[in-house]
Each structure stands twice: as C-alpha cells, then as structure tokens.
Amino acid sequence: MILTSLQEKPPYYQLEKMPVPTAVWSGASGLAELGAHWIHGPSEGNPVFRLASSYGLLGPGATEEENQRVEAKGHPLLPVITYGSSGKVLSPELVNGTRSLFSELLGSAQALAGVEELPASSVGQYMRAEIARLASAWDEDRDDKQLRLAVLSACLKLECCISGTHSMDMVALGSFGEYTSLPGLDCTFPGGYSSLPERILETLPEGTVLLNKPVRTIWWQGSFREEGDADRDFPVRVECEDGDSFLTDHVIVTVPLGFLKERHQDFFHPPLPQRKAEAIHRLGFGTNNKIFLEFEQPFWEPEQQLLEVVWEDESPLTEPSADLKANWFKKLVGFVVLQPPEQLGHVLCGFIAGKESEYMETLSDTEVLSTMTHVLRTLTGNPHLPTPCSVLRSCWHSAPYTRGSYSYVAVGSSGEDIDILAQPLPEDASGPKAAAGAVRGRGHAPLLLLHHARRAAVRLAGGRAPQPAPAGRGPVVIKVPSPQSSAWFIARRSLVLRGLS
C-alpha cells in the first residue's frame, strides 16, 4: 500500500526488519525462493528486468540480446528428463511429440479470444474435447496411447501451475488469449529476488519505510485532521492494527486478490462499490506452492535441470481422484534442479498447484518429507534412494495476507474485471483516489508488485511517471507478503518510487 500527500512533512518512521520471500535456508548452502523464482519474459518490455539490469543484479548471459528474443511463453526451457510412475525414464521422442501437440492445442485455445460463439466455457473443457477428438484417430497400441494421454495429463497440471488454478476447467476460455507473454529466456537473481526491493530501498531517504505494520481499515471519502492542525483536511485515513493511523491524500493498495476476497468487506470503509466487489468475487485466485528437497549427493546427472513427473495411469479424459489424502502428491508437475549447485547445494524444487497444494500445507514437514521420498523412489525405480536431508516448503494459502498465489480469469469473469479492479476510487477525479486490488495487467506471467504499484501510481499522477520526492518529504504504506506472514512498508505523505520511470 502506498500513501501519498501534497503536504511536506519530515519522515519519522524507522526501517525495521523485512520478511521476504527469499529465504536463507539453514538446510542448504544458499538461498531458496519461496515466492517468485524467475523473471518471466526478461526483455526490454519488462520493467522488472530493466530495473534489475540497471542495478547489475542479474547473472552473466541474462542481458544478452539473443536470450531476450527467446519465446518461452511462460514455460520452462530447461534440459529435461521425464520419469514415469513405472520407475522408468520415458521416451524423449514420445514426450516431446506429445508436448508439441499440447502446445498446438493451447495455441488454438488462445486464438479463441474475442470469439462470440465459444466451443466451451473453460480452457479445460476445450482441451479435453480436442484431445478426445484426436485420440480417437491414433493408430498406436493401447499402451502407447495411454502413455501419450498420461503425458497430456501432466501438461495440464503444468498449465495449472502457470495459471495458478486448481483445474483448467476453472479458467475462462474466452479471455485465455488475452494474456500476453513477453519474450526472453527466463532468468533468476543470483542474490535472490529480494535483492531487487532491497536495492530500491537503498535509494529511499532514511526513515521512509517502516515494516511489520499490519493495516486494519482504510477509511476513504472522509475528512480527517491531525491533532493540533485545524488547517488541513485529509480525505483518507489508514488505521493500523496497533492503533496507529495515517492521514493522506491518496492510497495505492497492492494486496493479493486472495486477501481482498476474504477481507474487502471490512478492510475498506465505506465498502468498495458493488462493481468492484463483484469483480473481486468473479475473478479466480489459486494456490501454487514449492517444495524444496536437499540431498547430500545428487541422484540426477549434471546436465539435467528439470525432472518431470508422469503418472502413467492418468488421462485428461477421466476424472482425477478426489481423495486428497491418498493422492495429493500426484499433482506435482516435477522438480527444478537449483543452479548453480556450488552455490545452492544439491537441491530440488518441486511445484504443486491447486487443492492438493493447499492440502500439503496442512501436513507436517515430516509427512511431506516421507511422501516426497516415496515419490522419488517410485519414479526412479530405486527403493534405496537416500531420504532428503532437509525439506522446506511455501504455504501461500495459509498466509493470512495472501490466501493463495496467483490470480486468473475464471469462468464467469473476463479481462474487464481486471480493468474494473485496477481503476482508482472514487471515479470522480476531484476526490481522493484509492487504487484497490491486486493491480495487474493482462499478462500471463506474474510480475513484481512493484511494477503494478508503479502503474497505479502513474494513473494517479494523471499519466505521468512518479518522480522522487524532495528531501524532507516522506513516506508510504506498502504491503509485501512473505510466505508465513506479511509486512507493511509504511511511509507517508509523498510517493517515493525512484528509478522506476
């Protein structure tokens, strides 16, 4: 959340510790990204990439023009090995051919954006119908046909992770093609994703930012005065849980959609207009979690960077089991090998989305570690595979200030709901403005909240990029979630977003 005002006043809050999604993991020799992992679409059109490049935070090769032209479309382009549940490595030819087929079907689903008469309401329904149509003409033997269907099922699980949903049946077909993916070969921060906000914080005046300051209520469309100051009225008051309050002219709110779904009715006073409340209700918000496993020694080859998982008895044409206790781990799409091992140790990062991911959060570390050991022994066909020496996982659904990970356009909603949520309040340009919501453009890959806060700030400034505040003006309230808790960047009076224009 960002508070802005036109009145000069010296800052008086001190910077406190900042919980961030980049964790220093005691079980490994390096960092674990519990939140954002990559910069998706790292090219000149990506403001996060431009910022990181200008600060020199990226590794060698990340800024090469050749890498910026790669069309990854939100999918990992890594050397891959695919394990089947029979304990064998699957044929690369069959897997790659099936994956190419899935990409073609996904492209045809995206091409339906704007079509009035849609063949289905959801992406999942459309994909299954197309798969059934094509599968009826396959002239393979029964086992090969089933294996191809199992690979397609795994592809749908990956798409659930990318879209941040439990099932592609929940993602609206008509708006799916509105997502835009920037070009560029996905890259990471050698010093952790948190190195970017930390660098930005260094540019702010001392005392501008205060953390660990949960906000209870935003009072807007009011008339508030500070004690002893009868000459100045403020239209907005931000009330914190510890009793402190802040008076300001403008507020930019960048809380996740999951938080808004749960709290918007009591978080804003007066309540948000009906059309915003309805947009919050219609849009989808799902959970995507990570499971990190550290090993004393790797069981994978040095060139392997992605271990894919295929459960060979599954098919997109049959309903998956609803027994989460018995089958939650089957939603895992695979494991990324953290690089470089000399810095990060021998660590696998598993990705899991949906209700299965939320169920995982209810288990103990011991239960998760035991299950992951069983899964890896099954996939590799090695019953003696050593147990990982430590485990770490994110729990985004349980975190009260996030309640999930990603937003998506759900069946029954549209891209217009994103636009509605991003519009400032009140609509009367002469009144106080509060840009409320998980402000995001119609882009497929989630970007830093920083980017969306900047865009909201530009709108509030009448289309002008925000400029650094003069000395003596101070700060804001920005909410930045961590996996288990949440912090509020608190500042006040003037918007300070240096290096963003």
Which bin fits the share of residues in helices? 25-40%
Number of beta-strand segments? 19
CATH A-level architecture of the largest domain:
Alpha-Beta Complex
Indicate how many domains the architecture comprises: 2
Distance between the termini: 19 Å
Major β-sheet strand ordering? 4-12-13-14-11-15
Q: Shape from CA axes?
A: globular
Could you explain how this protein is built, in words?
- Its main location: cytoplasm.
- This is Amine oxidase domain-containing protein.
- The protein is of the alpha+beta class and 501 residues long.
- It has two domains: 2-34 and 207-284 and 402-491, 3-Layer(bba) Sandwich (FAD/NAD(P)-binding domain); 75-180 and 288-393, Polyamine Oxidase, Chain A, domain 2 (Alpha-Beta Complex), CATH 3.90.660.10.
- Helix content is 30%, strand content 17%.
- The protein has 15 helices and 19 strands.
- It has helices at residues 47-54, 65-68, 92-110, 123-135, 142-163, 173-176, 195-202, 257-267, 274-282, 324-327, 341-344, 354-361, 365-380, 415-422, 449-460, and strands spanning 2-4, 22-24, 31-33, 80-84, 215-219, 236-240, 245-248, 250-252, 268-269, 284-286, 288-295, 306-310, 334-337, 346-353, 390-393, 406-408, 433-435, 476-481, 486-491.
- It has a six-stranded mixed beta sheet with strand order 4-12-13-14-11-15, with helices on both faces. A four-stranded mixed beta sheet has the order 7-6-5-9.
- Strand 6 and strand 7 (245-248) form a beta hairpin.
- It starts with a strand and ends in a 10-residue tail after the last strand.
- The relative contact order is 0.21.
- Mean pLDDT is 83; it is low at 6-20, 443-454 and 460-501.
